[in-house]
TrEMBL record:
<keyword id="KW-0718">Serine biosynthesis</keyword>
<protein>
    <recommendedName>
        <fullName>phosphoserine phosphatase</fullName>
        <ecNumber>3.1.3.3</ecNumber>
    </recommendedName>
</protein>
<feature type="coiled-coil region">
    <location>
        <begin position="55"/>
        <end position="82"/>
    </location>
</feature>
<dbReference type="GO" id="GO:0036424">
    <property type="term" value="F:L-phosphoserine phosphatase activity"/>
</dbReference>
<dbReference type="InterPro" id="IPR002912">
    <property type="entry name" value="ACT_dom"/>
</dbReference>
<dbReference type="GO" id="GO:0005737">
    <property type="term" value="C:cytoplasm"/>
</dbReference>
<keyword id="KW-0175">Coiled coil</keyword>
<comment type="pathway">
    <text>Amino-acid biosynthesis; L-serine biosynthesis; L-serine from 3-phospho-D-glycerate: step 3/3.</text>
</comment>
<dbReference type="GO" id="GO:0000287">
    <property type="term" value="F:magnesium ion binding"/>
</dbReference>
<dbReference type="GO" id="GO:0006564">
    <property type="term" value="P:L-serine biosynthetic process"/>
</dbReference>
<keyword id="KW-0378">Hydrolase</keyword>
<dbReference type="InterPro" id="IPR054480">
    <property type="entry name" value="AHAS_small-like_ACT"/>
</dbReference>
<dbReference type="Pfam" id="PF22629">
    <property type="entry name" value="ACT_AHAS_ss"/>
</dbReference>
<dbReference type="InterPro" id="IPR045865">
    <property type="entry name" value="ACT-like_dom_sf"/>
</dbReference>
<keyword id="KW-0460">Magnesium</keyword>
<feature type="domain" description="ACT">
    <location>
        <begin position="361"/>
        <end position="430"/>
    </location>
</feature>
<dbReference type="Pfam" id="PF12710">
    <property type="entry name" value="HAD"/>
</dbReference>
């Protein structure tokens, strides 16, 4: 039985509301453009929050557009650049599940199909409204017989389709939530990567801050093994806002505190500390999930590097107190989480790694003793794993091995790599 994935387009597959963007193109030279933009956005939000019928909202917005086919071409160019990052990096999922992925939107096929087609989403699986044009190519209206132009249109469409399998809904608006209310879908996921509408997320089965999270929860093929929104980054002390912005924009969950609180220590995955903050040895020893520490200053005498090495925690700091360290340090931390890079680390061997190409990246941190690499490669050989690339560097008592392997392997492999003698920490990147 096929599983079906009903995905919204505006503010879900893409980061923006397409009709809002179309208005900015078509009304660029209109003397009252700012007032019209505001009215279109108002109509959009009223509908998305369930405060105005979709038919009223759609009719009102289309009348205000004054758009034509040339404007649509410009819109498509913009939308292709504004695909939500977590959808963009998961093309392989769409390729493997092309029969089960449906784009269902109150938007319009004329701009949706060209944007989603490069992601292996079939044109026949795009359900949306269609514009009506005059002979000069001006938009004069839309097909009012299409159920998606009506209030509750997504529910009406799904009843017509009668899909023979479990159905999962992903979207940001009230029309997406109506699928859950109808009882036609298995679970509804409120998508909040671009915008969170409390009226929708509070009643969803699951709030998914990214498409990675949706794939992770449902144990589906994905570009990264563990969603970044599940990695907690604790920021403590005098840390400029730009540092938190960089990490939040990258998808990490951020907590800002004045001190390192005991309740966060065991769950924190990243720690960014302001100058002069000291991390107690006892706190550091309890931080079992901690992967990297960033310190905006010289960490000497403030963070125990021996404990960091024992626990496989990568430390980045800036003992020269450069002006740009509030941007440089968080980016180094993010690069380690995202790619495994340890460039400019204070305690690890410095590695700058190439982009992962259709492979899984395995990070093995171990004590720098003879025979560990032989054990690692024996495990790969016993499991008949094809190694795409492998990198090894050592520094003092730390060994750092990065191996890119073909994506197809038994999960038992990961357990065996973790059990190798002298392993400090093991992590999978996809």
């Amino acid at each position: 039985m096929t599983n079906y994935y009903i995905i919204d387009f505006d503010s879900t597959f893409t980061q923006v509301e397409a009709l809002d963007e179309l208005a900015r193109i078509s009304l660029a030279n209109h003397p009252a453009r700012e007032l019209i933009y505001e009215e279109i956005e108002r109509l959009t939000n009223l509908s998305m929050n369930g405060q105005l019928s979709f038919r009223e909202s759609l009719s009102g917005r289309v009348k205000l557009l004054e758009a034509n086919r040339e404007h649509l071409k410009k819109l498509i160019t913009i939308l292709k650049k504004r695909v939500s990052p977590s959808f963009s990096r998961n093309r392989e999922f769409f390729k493997k599940h092309s029969d089960g992925v449906l784009i269902v939107s109150g938007g319009f096929k004329e701009f949706i199909v060209p944007v989603v087609s490069p992601y292996h989403i079939k044109q026949d699986n795009v359900y949306a409204n269609t514009f009506i044009f005059d002979e000069q190519g001006n938009i004069t209206g839309y097909d009012e017989n299409n159920p998606l132009s009506e209030e509750g249109g997504k529910v009406k469409l799904l009843r017509q389709l009668q899909l023979p399998g479990k159905i999962y809904g992903i979207g940001d608006g009230y029309s997406d939530f109506q699928l859950k209310e109808s009882g036609l879908i298995e679970r509804f996921f409120a998508f909040t990567e671009n915008i969170e509408r409390k009226s929708v997320s509070e009643r969803a089965d699951h709030v998914t801050p990214s498409f990675d999270e949706f794939l992770y929860v449902n144990d589906l093929p994905r570009a990264i093994s563990y969603p970044k929104n599940r990695i907690l980054c604790l920021i403590v002390g005098d840390v400029p806002e730009i540092a938190a912005h960089i990490l939040k924009r990258d998808g990490f969950s951020i907590r800002v505190k004045e001190t390192v609180e005991e309740k966060y220590v065991k769950d924190v995955g990243m720690l960014l500390l302001g100058k002069d903050i000291r991390l107690d040895d006892a706190q550091l020893a309890q931080a079992d999930k901690l992967k990297t520490i960033g310190y905006l200053g010289d960490s000497k005498h403030r963070i125990n590097r021996s404990i960091c090495n024992e626990k496989g925690i990568v430390l980045f700091d800036d003992k020269k107190d450069k002006k740009r360290n509030s941007e440089f340090i968080p980016r180094r931390m993010a690069d380690f989480i995202n790619k495994g890079d340890t460039y400019m680390s204070r305690n690890f061997p410095n590695l700058i790694l190439p982009k992962i190409e259709k492979a899984h990246r395995l990070l093995h941190i171990h004590r720098n003793v003879p025979g560990v690499m032989a054990q690692i490669n024996n495990v790969f050989a016993e499991n008949q794993i094809n190694i795409v690339a492998q990198f090894l560097m050592t520094k003092g008592d730390i060994g750092y091995a990065v191996t890119d392997v073909d994506a197809q392997y038994d999960k038992q492999l990961l357990k065996q790599l973790r059990q190798i003698a002298n392993t400090v920490k093991f992590r999978v990147l996809y």
